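Hi V.,

You were right to ask for the full record rather than a summary. Here it is.
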Amino acid sequence: MFKKMTKLERAWVLYDVGNSIFTMMVSTLIPIWFKSLAAESAMDSSTYLADWSYAVSAVTIIVALLGPILGAISDHKNFRKPMFTGFLLVGVATCILMGIVPDWRLYIAVFIIAKSCYQLSLVLYDSMIGDVTTPERMDVISSGGYAFGYIGSCIPFIIALAFYALGLFGYMNMKLSIALAFIVAGLWWLLVTLPLLRRYEQKNYVGQSGKAFGESMKRIGNTVAHMYRDHKNVLFFLIAFFFYIDGVYTIIDEAVAIGSALNLGDMGLLVVLLLTQVVAFAFATLFGKLSEKYDSIKLISVCILGYFAVAIFALFMHSLWQFGIMAFMVGMFQGAIQALSRSYFASIIPQDSSGEYFGIYDICGKGASFVGTMLIGITVSLTGSVNIAVSTLAVLFVLGFIFLQLSVKTSKADAKQK
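Predicted structure:
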């Protein structure tokens, strides 16, 4: 797949390879190190999971507010690349800083900045796809990004995991091992992104007659009104995406936090999640090929049902091998549902306003995945049960499936009218 891409397509895919290490750190070492710092303040497991969930929710609210505005601004000529570069550099710097800060409160503050910059960079990155490839290749290229992102992130993560293991087993000072792990993650994120910074040029943009901010705010309002009036299929898809991807990102972000709260053993959890990346690579590649034969909506529906099964299975998860089964199931659908959703949305929006549309898209996705984290935080606070808290995510997948079917019906109705 990679050899058949153009140089620009490969450069775009490499950002998925670069930033995926941060996703792995968020899912693994970041919550583990936060728990270690929090334990120094005698924080119990339930409080730790609740506070971590609230921190993740804070990030998503920030991105939900800023994503569409910055995305719309980036649609103006020569805006997207420098904005992307700025968020990249701040994200890398704060990623490295997380391996140094000594207090759990400061750690959470730096995490919020790092993850916000990471997600805002993805708003701009996703909107680049119309500039780097053709509409008929979007499914394949988007799937390739996630697939190679999963397998590529294994390289720096194994190095980071080795440093962590040296500290865990007493061969190195733990604070030094954590610092080195985060330095590896930050540098990988930056260096693998350099080809995109060198090759990318914004081809699709809107005209600018005044101030970019004022124009952008007006265009966002017009776009939402236009979707409600003339493109309800897009609107229903965004609502569906809001619910199902909220559940997906909650599981990704909180996998290790959930396992740690169940006292499953940190090293075992990390190894399981590393193997999950290999599973995710294989299945993201498979679904990319299937998208050439089958409708994207049908494949997305299969993924939603798979995640529903994961949420129900969480009710019975009490051991590491059961966590491994759940992680394998997540790996099967994780890359596919993200890639197919991204490429399908890109195929139904105007390319000259892709930044604006992807800003709204990311409100419903990476920038608004606070419902699941808040749901877990509140449920575990009320019940004290991690299993029940995770299983409540099933509701999000049911709602996502329902609205996805409404989007399909609306599209068919619009097609008949035309």
